[in-house]
Design brief:
The protein contains three helices and eight strands, in the order E-E-H-E-E-E-H-E-H-E-E. The chain is α/β, with parallel strands linked by helices and about 180 residues long.
């Protein structure tokens, strides 16, 4: 099933409390929305050392997910099965979402005084997959990439990764 990205991504923003000098774009997982991660940004914003950060939480479009019996839900791309990393991937949907996320980051950079080296992209589960792919294929070098409970998709197509820091949690055995 093709995803239904029509125009720019919708997103939720948690504004910085202090002067804005950094941005975190955090991408949710399958079936969730940016609203599910807002409490995390609010918790971090309570720390005086992190009050300069603007948080941006894009929302995935709703689409039918094959592995979930065709149920329509927020998803960055179709998942054909939960059978493992050797399964076929929805390359078209993955690349379409990565392009939309890149456009969101580019818009954040062009509409603020924030430089790419002050932007971190991260995500959880399917959002972590998108954060790794998007961050590693950006033409701009970001401050970092965080992937939580995820894997590197379309990994056979990578020759060079363009990033400074990458933190992976869980799933590291999948990268062997």
């Amino acid at each position: 099933m093709a995803s239904t990205l029509a125009g720019p991504l919708k997103y939720l923003t948690v504004s910085p409390i202090a002067a804005h000098t950094a941005t975190v774009v955090f991408i949710h997982g399958l079936g969730d929305s940016g609203h599910g991660w807002k409490p995390v940004a609010e918790m971090f914003s309570a720390d005086p050392a992190m009050q300069h950060i603007k948080w941006v939480f894009p929302h995935a479009p709703n689409m039918a997910v094959t592995a979930n019996g065709g149920m329509v839900m927020p998803s960055w791309y179709d998942i054909y099965s939960f059978g493992g990393l050797k399964e076929e991937e929805d390359e078209e949907g993955i690349l379409r979402s990565a392009k939309a996320i890149k456009q969101l980051i580019d818009s954040e950079i062009s509409s603020t005084s924030i430089q790419p080296n002050r932007v971190v992209i991260g995500g959880f589960s399917q959002g972590g997959v998108m954060s790794l792919l998007t961050g590693m294929t950006m033409d701009k070098k970001l401050a970092g990439i965080v992937g939580l409970s995820c894997y590197l998709t379309l990994r056979a197509k990578f020759k060079e990764a363009r990033f400074r820091y990458c933190i992976l949690t869980e799933g590291l055995t999948h990268l062997r």
